[in-house]
Amino acid sequence: MLSHTTIDSIDCVLAFDIHEQKYLFIGQGIDAVLGITARELYRDNRLWDKLIHKENLAGIKSLINTLAENSSVELSYQITTPQQTTKNITDKKSLITDAATGHKVLLSTIKATHAKTNCTTASSTGAEHSQQFLNSLIDSQTSFLIRIDTSGNYTFVNRQYLKTLGYKAKDILGKHFSVTSLSEEAHLCENAFMECLNNPGKVVPLLHKKPDVHGNLHDTEWELISIVNENGEVCEIQGIGHDVTARIKIEAKVRDTAQKLDTFIESITDSFFIIDNNWRFVRVNAAFEKIWGKPRAQLLGKVIWDLFPQLINTPFEIAYREAQAKQESVKFMVYFAPLNKWFRTAVYPSTEGITVFAKNVTYEMRAQEEALWTKNNLEALINNTNDKIWSVDTDNRYVYMNNAYIAQIKAMTGVSPQKGEYSYKDVGFPQEVIDEWSAYYRRALNGENYTIVLESVDDEAKNPAFYEVSFNPIFASNGEIKGVGCFAHDISERLKTEQELLSQNKRMRNIASLSSHELRRPVASMLGLINIMDRENPNNPENKQIIDYLQIVSTEIDDVIRLIVDHTFTGNNHEG
């Protein structure tokens, strides 16, 4: 409650509870200033208003209605006491909030500044002075203040209203309020006007656009109330308004931003939800509904641990509580067995609760696992061959080497090559070898795909070995060459086999030559001798001579056969 000790130390202070519509406190001296007692004012809280001249009361009420919290205004006006004494008083009004009840309380500090007995001239002069001062206060307000008679014609407009719309008082005073209304919204003004006429004392709200003299539109917000005369009849309608164009634009931007945010939240594939400090769902998106299989109607307002007990004692609960307790964001990735899914989660705390984004990364995690499995198996396959496999980047630095390649380089130089080192600049390679390999790489880096045969060593005994080496450009996704892949296959055995085949072919050619030359002649002689033998008279003396010749020719054939056998199995390629 208000402190009486403080208030009692100030003369003539009144505290009025606007919510309860009653006086909480009336200070000393009220009877000396207003001519009424505290008891009378407690009993009839409108008694003070009855002392104020009617021409001032409406303006005073308008100023009180527009008074902002924790602000004050000082008024000067004239009253007539029940004793028929006319007084000029100053009235400082302040609006505060009672900390105990939360009610708005209007504090009034009043003081008499001048007093006169009933005198028409003096009263008239004082009233004019008071009215001028009150009008000055009204014109200094940033709110719109207007009055309209029962015919709908302007009887008063304040300076702020004229300034905002660009009118002069003579342009609208005495004219119907429709002159400052937008034609398509005139019905709104007419409806509010009629409601005020039909409901004296009721505050009628009105929100509509008003055009200024330049054609610009202003969003205005009004509170209209009818004013009654001493007979209780409506004599005027009073309006207090504000230019809310900027506020409406800001609100529109806020709504637009909120709508875009809503659209974004609903369109993302991440599960999104907000939980208040009591662990109740405040908001969820469509992705969250889908992944958990619950509509938001079953989620909003419910405690997360009650709906999803499977989250208890998991990294999710630990992270949520940690973010709330420490007011620090938490990010983590975890496998959630009940859903058989991986989630990458970010938790953002605020004073109202926590906001959570949970992305389903199951596909990515499985793809990574498969990629790792493939990589491990590919490396196992690559390292399970005696072929040498390696790659270099555009600077000829090693990117990858299999075990066979590393072993060969170590056998040649005594040092194992390392990833990132320059290829063939290892210890033990002369400059001509380095230049030679730089040229090979350069050809592939220029886009050429080719194969060469090189001689090397393959064991500690430095035995020569022959390799077929292929150079293949490695392309990035944008088509740019980013390195060279090399594959060296030992072809020593193949070359040896090929050499043996060549040697065998040569021997076969020699055999063919011997067969066609050396063997054909004695065979021809043998056939000729057989043809001239006397078969009818075997005892013909000439047959003996022919048989002797056949013996000589047989010996020649045997010699040629021995020569062919010698050439076939010994490799002696003596041509003759």
Descriptive notes:
With 576 residues, this protein is an alpha+beta fold. It folds into 5 domains: 4-139, Beta-Lactamase; 144-247, Beta-Lactamase; 270-364, Beta-Lactamase (2-Layer Sandwich); 383-490, PAS domain (Beta-Lactamase); 496-570. It contains 18 helices and 20 strands. It has a 5-stranded antiparallel sheet. A hairpin with a 5-residue loop joins strand 9 and strand 10. Helix 5 runs parallel beside helix 6 and helix 17 (492-532) runs antiparallel to helix 18 (541-570). The longest helix is centred in the C-terminal third of the chain and has 41 residues, at 492-532. The model is unreliable at 1-10 and 115-131 (pLDDT under 50).
Mean pLDDT: 82
Please report the first level of CATH classification, the CATH class of the largest domain: Alpha Beta
State the low-pLDDT regions, or none: 1-10, 115-131
Tell me the number of strands: 20
Instruction: State the major sheet.
Output: 5 strands, antiparallel
Q: Can you tell me the overall shape?
A: rod-shaped
Helical/strand content category: alpha+beta
Return the CATH architecture of the largest domain.
Answer: 2-Layer Sandwich
Q: Report the radius of gyration as a whole number of Å.
A: 57 Å
What portion of the residues fall into strands of 2 or more residues? 25-35%
Total number of distinct structural domains: 5
Number of helices: 18
CATH topology of the largest domain: Beta-Lactamase
Q: Please bin the fraction of helical residues.
A: 40-55%
Question: Span between N and C termini?
Answer: 140 Å
Pfam family, one: PAS_4
Organism: Mucilaginibacter lappiensis
Protein name: histidine kinase
InterPro entries: HisK_dim/P_dom (IPR003661), HisK_dim/P_sf (IPR036097), PAS (IPR000014), PAS-like_dom_sf (IPR035965), PAS_4 (IPR013656), Sensor_kinase/Photoreceptor (IPR052162)
